[in-house]
Amino acid sequence: MHVPMKLSRSIVEQAPAAIIVIDMDGRVTYQNAEAQRLLCFSDAAIVGRNLVQATGQRDAGVASTVLASDQARSADLAAHRQPARPSVRSMARQDGVRVTVSCTEAPLYSGNQQVGTVLFATEITDQKNADEVALQQAEKLTLAIDAAEIGWFDIHLQTQELIWSERVKQHFGLAPDALASLAVFYQILHPDDRERVQQTLTQAQADMQREDGRCQIQFRTVSPIDGETRWIAARTQAFYDANGKPVRLVGTTADITERTLAEMQLREAAQHDALTGLPNRALLFEYCDYLLAQATRAEADSAVLFIDLDRFKAINDLYGHEIGDKVLQEVARRLQACTRREDIVSRLGGDEFIIVLPRIQTGEDPETVAQHILEAIVQPIRVGSLELALSSSIGISLFRKHASDLDGLIRCADLAMYSAKQSGRNTFRMFTPGHDERASDRLQLEIHIKHQLESDAMVLFYQPIVDVKSGHLIGAEALIRMHAEDGKLLNPDQFIPVAESAGLIGKLGHWTSAEACRQNQAWRKAGLPPFSMAINVSAIEFRQRSFISHLAGVLEQTGMDPGCLQIELTESAVMDNVPEAIAILEKLRAMGVKIALDDFGTGYSSFSNLRKLPLDKLKIDQSFISHIDSDEFNQSISEAIIGLGRSMNLKIVGEGIESDLAMDYLRDHGCDQAQGFLFSAPLPALEFESWCKDHVQRFH
Fold first, then answer.
1. Where does residue 415 fall: left (phi above 0), alpha (psi -120 to 50 degrees), or beta otherwise?
2. Whole-number percent of the chain with pLDDT over 90
3. Residues 110-137: pLDDT tens digits?
4. Which strands make up the sheet holding 344-349, listed edge to edge?
5. How far apart are CA 547 and CA 593, in angstroms?
6. pTM of the predicted protein model
7. Pick from 71, 247, 601, 658: CA 20 to 30 A from residue 323's CA?
């Protein structure tokens, strides 16, 4: 075995790297202990053999060529006094297992004659495997980022150098060759967002490390190419040096334009009256909380006008709801024309409107506005070939003088409006304490409700619910009615608010659920086909502690299948306290009771909260069904609700269907169930039973 004199055998043997000496023919003349451990060849098995061939790097035919090339390269580097360059090789051990090594070659001389080569080898198998895994993970991450359409960026804070991906350019509406710089980024930010985003980035570059260095921000960009506004959600992570100073901001971007526009559309629909486009009650109160707070700070005067149309019901009854709706739309336009831009015109519902004047100089200002409104509304309203006459009654209340919040102001203006009606209509009245006499009427109604409950004199009407595809009866909604002292039938909106304020809503709800379940079982015994029974539950009743236990008792007492009972709740009933609502709803679901969200679209439900609710159905509010065959706004809202329901695996019910065109539209767009005057008005129990029998015969 030939070992150069200059090498100390003891040092070589103890070296942590594998050292192998080969002659000019590539045959191994020496290996140290580490080489023997690495390749598992004994001296007898490797010495004298061609290293390249023995370790399976090449076949015999090309081994000599590889050897000559390697030795020439190492000699050339040595001649030019250049350091040896490591190469990566895959070698086979004696047991056939392959290892990856990093090799450095140095020529071996005897005098001036090269007599061989010394190989210094270090195993890097684990490192190579880790590198390959990292590469695969990086490729997967790149694919995932591309699939999720996520962009990334990297800001070096000291140099202000910015690097961003191609996807970021797409998100920002930039050209493919656009330069990556903070100046370009700030330039394309929406003017209303620019200062806020700059402040956020400046804060992120503060000297002291804050929290975990993460930040989330949403902003708009305006494309320099097409001027299109895009909504972007960005997440950033700050990286700090040893002194806690941020040195880099790395983050991602996501284009949330489509989602944001959809949410804005639903929010707009939820906060505006679908018929007139005016702010609804929810938006009215949101605006006025701010305006009245401003008025308080400035010690300014404000006023509320409550407008009710005189004898509007006669127009609906005589010409139909379509004409009535056009009249309401025209009234809304005239009210807006009578007010300033800073004033708020809102529709409460039906033929009632509210106007808030946030800034008045004297108490006569609202009276002047009221007079203009009276004169505007009394002008003939033309709808097609019809010329309709209309008037209004207006009540006025003043901020601080009559009430200090919007609820109180509306109440006072409402009382004054009724005084105007009693004075002959087509006039206005300022609130006076004498108007509180109306409160006595409410007391009389409260006493009457109690008497009706005690004497079991309440009445339920039933409206059928049909399957959109087959037309078969699948359910009924129980709707409560009450006879007034004069024998006239009162609708729920005429007595339910009084029952709620008097604390009677629980008893009213208990009676309704018991009677509806009893009647459903009676029809089942009478031979009617099985169908579900839907009952409306108020927000107050829903949150009463006795609600669940009472309902369970009713089901047990009547023997009704819980799966045939459906509870209908409004958005406000469940969104006031979502965790509490979920707990109650889960108990109902555990009983087998079905749950529907009623009048959906008239409130604004957070999507994240809505997805948590254990629901079975969404009922599209009838205000969106009206003229759905021709009204693009109602169409877009209804289609959005249907799509949302589909994504949550919920059944969709259309309410207030009055025409075949509306029915056809909902059927074509995936609505599951339908309810409305097209099929039947709400009917007393006996009439509903007759309707059911006729309907069953028609479809069987």
1. alpha
2. 25
3. 878 888 888 888 888 777 776 666 666 6
4. 344-349, 352-360, 301-310, 391-398, 428-430
5. 13
6. 0.46
7. 601
